[in-house]
Amino acid sequence: MLDRRKFLSTTALAAAALATPAVLRAQENRLVINSFGGAYEEIHRRLVITPFEQMTGAKVEVVTAYSADMLAQLRAQKDAPQFDVAHFSGGLETQAAIEGLLAPIDPAELPNAADLYDFARAGLSKGVGPTYSTAVIGLLYDTGKVTPAPSSWNDLLREGLGEHVLLTDAASNTYGMLGLLMMNRVAGGTLDDIGPGLDFARRLLEAGAIVVSKSPEIQQNFAQGVAWLAAYAQDYAYTLTKAGLPVRFSQPEEGAAMAPITVNLVAGRPNRELALKFIDFSIRPEAAAGWAEALRYTPTNRKVQLAPDVAEQVVHGEAAIARLVQFDPLVIAEKRAGWNEQWKRLLAR
Amino acid sequence: MSDRITAAARRESLALLAPGIAVLLLAFLLPVAVILVTSVRDPAGGLTAAHFAKFFVDDYYLRIAWRTLRLALAITAVTVIFGLPLAWIMVRAGPRLRFAIMLMVILPLMTSVVIRTFGWLVVLGNGGLLARLGEFLGLDGRALVLMHTETGVVIAMAQVLLPFMVLTLLGVLRAIPRDLEEAARTMGAGFWATMRLVVLPLAVPGIVSGSLIVFALSISSFITPSLVGGVRLPVLASSIYQSIGGSFDWPFAAAQSVLLLAATLAVIIPYTRLARGRT
């Protein structure tokens, strides 16, 4: 029979072990970081994490946490942070920096930062870590169906495309929201007034546009030949190309929206030096080139050299990057809930 | 001596109950309590009705609620209409046929809802089976595309939930003595009259509990309505999900959950009364 005292003490021990985050047990030569799971995390390990461990002999512990989850965890751990480096996509790093959850970095502390485009290192002194690559939101089109190729956001309204235009739900999908903001900008709106963007979308809906909320539905609609033209991300165009679909990405002449992916230094951790080394390692040209090759994210390091087949599918280089549009993440954070309410009402039948 | 035995027996049954009660407390009552509290708290920690007021600010959320209710009722009705004859045949059938039908009913339960729903996407979607049938019949290209329609949601959901109805009905129908039907037939009642006057009234408890399960599962369902119905036909569960994942508005999500719970109870309580009255 199980001795009750023994049982209780074992349970208590097990509970304590579970409750103590792995981080507290970590040694000095260890970093705790987040990544985004799945294929992304696999590539992250191959491009950055594993080579970093080999180079420094440090141990990097990876916790899978998306941006919103990451911000929630950093907030909860404000008094005793458990992460050394936090990766964000979709603009939440600015919010985290304002709340003092992230530590400012002196550009001199990151040797590779000198090679970054200005936008990618603009927030360092305020606590926003460098942008190590960026997703780009523009137009995806079926090369067999949409001729000539789309070159403007207004091509979404092109005669004869109506029922073959695909929109992504702006209330649940950040790429969908950025697409809406681009339509809004092209139609003459601002972040203070997204009325023109909503009108633009209403015209698309009235013409029969399809609306989906998840990226697999985009693939399905292109595969079935229902969707010919969509406002979405360059990296997803590559997913479709890899799936054998005749889909290409186009950066419209009015610009495409940027969805930066950043690597940030968490405030109040003892491993600052090692963490900075990791951040610097993340922004070196080889890593940025690797992201472009593997997933078609736009590199933010000037020194990146892309192979011709990759270069053809990725917005890159000084001139093209200058045309990317970055919306103020703080304004987005403040206004998004209100926009969602307007957008949902526009959408619902 | 006997006191000690009863005391021990009580302790033992308590010990047996403990895991169930613990799970119920931790995984059900506690979260529901948290949701209730969240739905009436303002950011400063005081009490507020603002999150509920948001639901009634215009007819947008009311229409979502009405759609949710309407769909759940339609799905329940469809599963009764298809489930009742199926269950009756299973009771009457020989062992081999019964086994075959049972397999057909239970097999879908072994696959994940997501997989089954994706199957429906293939059937109901553009270029799918139904759409091609429509073309074959010379109909307009999109006439039979049921993706992103309420009809599509009802069809897919009814298939997903039919097993719950059939299995519940089966138990009740099996308990109806066959003699009763035979007696009715001997006394001159036709097949339909026997069904209406004998089988159906006796099956009511099964229909009620089957409907309750199907209704409760449909009103809170999320995956199938969002995949088949799409973003333009929001139901309450998808609206709650959107409030959390898209707008990060937990209190409003909590308020919607409370309303969903209230609506479910409002339907379920009178329904169970009715069932009790009939039996």
Please characterize this protein's 3D structure.
The complex is a heterodimer of chains A (349) and B (279). Chain A is α/β, with parallel strands linked by helices and 349 residues long. Helix content of chain A is 43%, strand content 16%. Chain A has 14 helices and ten strands. Chain A has helices spanning 4-19, 38-56, 67-76, 92-98, 118-121, 174-186, 195-206, 215-223, 234-242, 272-282, 285-295, 308-311, 318-322, 329-347; strands spanning 30-35, 59-64, 85-89, 131-142, 165-168, 210-212, 229-233, 247-250, 257-265, 298-299. In chain A, strands 3, 4, 5, 6, 7, 8, 9 and 10 form an eight-stranded mixed sheet that branches. Chain A is globular, with a radius of gyration of 22 Å. Chain A starts with a helix and ends with a helix. Mean pLDDT of chain A is 90; it is low at 19-26. Chain B has 279 residues and is mainly alpha-helical. Chain B has a single domain, classed as MetI-like fold (Orthogonal Bundle), CATH 1.10.3720. In chain B, helix 3 crosses helix 9. The mean pLDDT of chain B is 89. The interface between A and B is medium-sized, with 23 and 22 residues.
Concise structural overview:
The complex is a heterodimer of chains A (349) and B (279). With 349 residues, chain A is an alpha/beta fold.
Describe the secondary-structure layout.
The complex is a heterodimer of chains A (349) and B (279).
Chain A: H1 4-19, E1 30-35, H2 38-56, E2 59-64, H3 67-76, E3 85-89, H4 92-98, H5 118-121, E4 131-142, E5 165-168, H6 174-186, H7 195-206, E6 210-212, H8 215-223, E7 229-233, H9 234-242, E8 247-250, E9 257-265, H10 272-282, H11 285-295, E10 298-299, H12 308-311, H13 318-322, H14 329-347
Parallel strand pairs in A: 1-2, 5-6, 5-7
Antiparallel strand pairs in A: 3-9, 4-7, 4-8, 4-9, 4-10
Helix pairs in contact in A: 2-11, 6-7
Chain B: H1 2-40, H2 50-55, H3 59-92, H4 95-106, H5 113-124, H6 129-136, H7 150-174, H8 178-186, H9 191-219, H10 223-229, H11 236-245, H12 250-278
Helix pairs in contact in B: 1-12, 3-4, 3-7, 3-9, 5-7, 5-10, 7-9, 7-10, 8-9, 9-12, 11-12
